[in-house]
Automatic annotation (TrEMBL):
Biological process terms in GO annotation: cobalamin biosynthetic process; methylation; siroheme biosynthetic process
Pathway: Porphyrin-containing compound metabolism; siroheme biosynthesis; sirohydrochlorin from precorrin-2: step 1/1; Porphyrin-containing compound metabolism; siroheme biosynthesis; precorrin-2 from uroporphyrinogen III: step 1/1
This protein's name: Uroporphyrinogen-III C-methyltransferase
Enzyme class: transferase
Phylogenetic placement of the source organism: Bacteria, Pseudomonadati, Pseudomonadota, Alphaproteobacteria, Rhodobacterales
Keyword terms: Cobalamin biosynthesis, Lyase, Methyltransferase, Multifunctional enzyme, NAD, Oxidoreductase, Porphyrin biosynthesis, S-adenosyl-L-methionine, Transferase
Tetrapyrrole methylase domain location: 218-427
Underlying gene: cobA
Stated family: Belongs to the precorrin methyltransferase family.
One Gene Ontology molecular-function label: sirohydrochlorin ferrochelatase activity
All copies of domain Sirohaem synthase dimerisation, residue ranges: 151-196
Gene3D superfamilies in the record: Cobalt-precorrin-4 Transmethylase, Domain 1, Methyltransferase, Cobalt-precorrin-4 Transmethylase, Domain 2, NAD(P)-binding Rossmann-like Domain, Siroheme synthase, domain 2
Coiled coil: none
Catalysed reactions listed for this entry: precorrin-2 + NAD(+) = sirohydrochlorin + NADH + 2 H(+)
Amino acid sequence: MQHFPIFLDLAGRRVVLAGGGETAVAKLRLLLKTEAHLTVFATDPCAEIEAWAEAGRLRLVRRTFGPGDALCAALAYAAEDDPEADARTARLARADGALVNIVDNLKGSQFITPAIVDRDPVTVAIGTEGAAPVLARAIKRDLEERLPAGLGVLARIGKAFRAAADRLPMGRARRDFWADYYFDAGPRALAKGEETVRPALDRLLEVHAGRRPDAGRVAFVGAGPGDPELLTLKARRALDTADVVIHDRLVTPGILELARREAVLIAAGKEGFGPAVAQADIDALIVEHARAGAHVVRLKAGDPTVFGRLDEEIAACEAHGIAFSIVPGITAASAAVAGIGQSLTRRGRNSSVRFLTGHDVAGFADHDWKTLAAPGEVAAIYMGKRAARFVQGRLLMHGADPDTPVTVVENAGRTDQRVIALRLSELEPGLTAATVTGPALILYGLAPRAAETALADLPDLKEAAL
Ligand code: SAH
């Protein structure tokens, strides 16, 4: 992010603009929405600017912009549509200490004016750092359609009511009141006429003031494999309303971004053999926040019910009478198998599939290797990077075919997904040689579809394909 978005209070501040043509008019239209003191320098101003000057909405100085003209100005716009004149204005204004924008010249500007969706006092600013003005316009159009024109009216009335609403306790009670207003009671009242909005707010406040404080609760939410688009709508809603989000280390920043801005984010996860927060401490953390009345989202990678120590956390909630719910997510096995164009089960090949963990609390985990070693078996091995050699040894010892396909999918379901197609005999040192740094799922018994087809059709290409 090269340009940091801020909203500047221009009330009573001086803003200068050099230019008298169409470009100047377009900028002035925006600036006239503010309460800035506008001064325009133009030798030959167009009629619109003349009219604004006559109406007292700006001060018009009929000469070229000169040294000292931007003194005490917060912002200066060079809008003459003439590179040389604009560069001169920019140089002078900068010397006067103003922040300078040359219209349509990103490089020569110290700040840029974003595309704006105006539902005053609600303002949405859209910036693409000059990369894609077309995109900014499309987003603006989309938002214009989505944000009802009445939103500005509701926000204005709501703003004047803020002090009255302060009688509600801070936090969730107040938030619930405002959510009710903006998304339910407010729009309904507005449909009947603007004058009914304020009385509706009074009534709504009485209703909310009479409510008992909300009890805390916990949602165990699956974050999926890491791509925000693979979140469920329920997961998104939970993140949107969370007071506290306690998340695994595997949960990606893109997903954490979706948490309510005011939510407290706590990283409390275990990752492979790295530093870990003790499970008992995580349990205690969940309980502590829920008991304080918070809506806690316990955000777990993939599906919370798969190798997530969910039961221990649920037990902690139950022990304290805390209400909880589970929002399933897409588990790594589903993402990984989708990533190689395969199916976890297939008629005639495998009618069951196992989810295994490579290691558990006691170390490398033992399984029914004999059954797994049979032809056609499929298993999704979680936390298997370190255990790969152990798994390989056990399976071979129990008679598995050394040619059984084994596919490692790193960062499954993410843009940086990597597929390493191996055979059981080469799982190690193949996996180590591939230097896998992200989370990885080992699909035993499955090859990427392309490789599989190549093998079936052209047996002599087997070596090349793998
Ligand atoms: N609850 C999670 C699993 C937690 S155990 C789920 O349902 O997916 C952690 C293991 O999951 C990691 O060691 C890795 O084997 C696997 N994993 C999680 N996310 C992954 C991803 N995006 N790609 C590959 N494997 C992943």
